[in-house]
Write a structure and sequence with these properties.
seven-stranded mixed β-sheet, four-stranded antiparallel β-sheet, 40% helix
Length: 368
């Protein structure tokens, strides 16, 4: 099976990985210690209800625990909600996370593709509303989106939700990268999901807390029928004991989340300034990764510098020449910019040489 995501360090060994967009500081000591201690309990089955995590999230958000459903990362929840809704027609806005389309294809669902515009930085616009037709069953949106790093204005999300409620379209909103935004608490739609039967918000501990190897995510909705169907169709014991323990520890990391968020904001601005100086085309982001465009094969060229970036040519709505880089710690980021500078400098020299050679080869006297 073809590997379509970032983070393939098993194929590309020994490289600095900019292809996966998780927190730049890795999992905290508290999260790792919680997971380590929980290993002593693996002789037992996990709590299939994720009881302690459910209680902690209820206390943390003020949302009733019965409105949460838990998954083996956000990806499992995406497949579970599709199996629960069993849609005949869906809308996704591309480019975006590939798993929405793959999950819908498992139900042989017809998919309408709304295409975001490159000249608008792949931001979602009002033209998306035209796709909310009476025969649509489900809509998938991602805010901030992947790979663009652009969020959807909350006013537009609320407008989309109102239309979905009127037309009985189930709206799934992926907020897995929201914690990296400066105004995350203002942008989230989690409270709206707790009040609406036509909205589900999906979150994960994977990205901010840098624990993709443990797989832990959750979704929130008021729609009890869909939540019950998701519980029935998911595999039992889907969130392991170490994953539940690590997630509980991650919920307490408020200060670390804020520190990471502030670092990302500063470092992203620094990196974008560096990219602009080098002459790399990029799309301004709001989170911990940046989408690039280049006529050069940056994926292959960066491998020569032992740096792995995300080739985005397999995203629907993009093509060859789009790449995504994550924001890591300063030393790694500096090394990436140095590599890009070297690559672009060599490219300019080659172009200048070719132009000069062309002038020397042409003898005006031969035209007489």
């Amino acid at each position: 099976m073809e590997y379509i995501h970032g983070g393939d360090i098993y194929t590309y060994t020994g490289m600095t990985d900019f292809s996966v967009n998780v927190g730049p500081f890795g999992p905290s000591m508290a999260v790792m210690e919680a997971a380590r201690k929980a290993v002593a309990e693996i002789g037992n089955y996990p709590d299939s209800r994720c009881g302690k995590l459910r209680e902690a999230l209820e206390k943390d958000t003020g949302i009733p625990g019965k409105q949460f459903v838990f998954g083996n990362g956000a990806a499992e929840l995406i497949y579970d909600v599709v199996r629960a809704v069993r849609p005949k027609k869906a809308v996704i806005s591309v480019p975006t996370f590939a798993e929405y389309e793959q999950a819908l294809q498992t139900e042989k669902c017809e998919i309408l593709y709304h295409e975001k515009k490159e000249e608008e930085g792949f931001a979602l616009g009002e033209d998306f509303l035209e796709f909310l037709r009476d025969d649509v069953d489900i809509v998938f949106l991602c805010s901030p989106d992947n790979p663009s790093g652009r969020s959807v204005p909350k006013g537009l999300l609320r407008k989309i939700l109102r239309i979905c409620e009127e037309k009985q379209i189930f709206m799934v909103l992926d907020e897995c990268f929201l914690d990296f935004m400066e105004n995350a608490s203002e942008m989230t739609m989690i409270k709206e999901a707790a009040k609406s039967s036509y909205l589900m918000v999906i979150r994960a501990f994977t990205k901010m807390h840098a624990m993709p190897g443990l797989r832990s995510g959750y979704a929130v909705s008021r729609n009890e029928s869909i939540l019950e169907k998701m519980e029935r169709c998911r595999q039992p014991w889907n969130v392991s004991i170490p994953a539940q323990a690590a997630s509980l520890a991650a919920l307490k990391e408020k200060k670390r989340v804020q520190t990471t968020r502030e670092f990302i904001t500063r470092e992203r601005k620094w990196m974008e300034e560096g990219l602009a100086e080098i002459g790399v085309t990029f799309f301004p982001s709001e989170v911990n990764y940046i989408l690039l465009k280049s006529d050069l094969d940056l994926f292959e060229k960066m491998k020569e510098y032992r740096i792995l970036i995300r080739d985005c040519s397999n995203y629907r709505g993009l093509e060859k020449g789009f790449y995504r880089i994550a924001i890591r710690q300063r030393g790694d980021n500096h090394r990436l910019l140095e590599a890009l500078y070297d690559i672009y400098s060599k490219s300019v020299k080659v172009e200048e040489t070719e132009e000069t050679d062309g002038e020397i080869d042409h003898d005006p006297g031969n035209d007489v």
